[in-house]
Design goal:
It comes from mine drainage metagenome. The chain is built from one helix and seven strands, in the order H-E-E-E-E-E-E-E. The protein is mainly beta. The model is unreliable at 4-22 (pLDDT under 50).
Length: 122
Amino acid sequence: MKIVYGVAAAIWLGVVASAPAFANGLDFSLKNATGYDIKAVFVDPSASDTWTDDVMGADILADGDKVDISFTGDEGTCKWDLKVEWTEDYKPTVWHGLNLCNISTVTLKYNRDTDVTTAVTE
């Protein structure tokens, strides 16, 4: 019986260790699968009329890369807007009403045929 508990504990520790270490329930991983590099990411409550500071700082999120987005915000607010700015001279892209209380990963994808960038959430 001790062996079964030991194996279960080892599996549980492996799952916990592989999960991202987020500071609060609003933090998430952002994957860039657009074909373009991202120079800035903004996350603000959906009720806000302005954008605060870039949550990535001076970093660039290259196509194919992932970054853990950690920010301080009211954990009682679940609906957040996401804005990305591209390294190329393209218009920023905005998604409204992402429920960050239930999202752990946002994957950005660009469809060249439709010229639409989508945010797929997990």
